[in-house]
């Protein structure tokens, strides 16, 4: 798993966060290193051809699409497509965050999520 550690960290977190928060980044590195290779390979195989874009329009429940503005794995453009196809959905773009926006910008993420939940309660 070692060769996957840094590329994954670079996808999941912005450069400024990686520099400022080694206390957060190091446990994530450890988590990636300790992931069983067979499990990782199985997950990759499971999602390699996964494309539910044409089916997401069937979602009829209140939906929040939330994305970090700097997420290369699930970019804002892909989130916009989801938002456009899920009628009545709400799109929240978290500034200064990559794939793990909830870790990188927990206050902004929590604000967006709680506001959404309050609106559907």
> Would you state the CATH class of the largest domain?
Alpha Beta
How widely separated are the two ends?
Answer: 42 Å
Q: What is the strand arrangement across the widest sheet?
A: 1-2
Tally of helical runs: 7
Class by helix and strand content?
mainly alpha
Describe this structure in words.
- By secondary structure, the protein is mostly helical.
- The chain has two domains: 1-50, no CATH class; 51-121, Rossmann fold.
- The protein has helices spanning 2-12, 15-20, 22-34, 37-47, 76-85, 101-104, 106-120, and strands at 64-68, 90-94.
- A two-stranded parallel sheet has the order 1-2.
- Helix 5 (76-85) links the parallel strand 1 and strand 2.
- Helix 1 (2-12) packs across helix 3 (22-34).
Would you summarize the structure shown here?
The protein has 121 residues and is mainly alpha-helical. The chain is built from seven helices and two strands; from the N terminus they run ααααβαβαα.
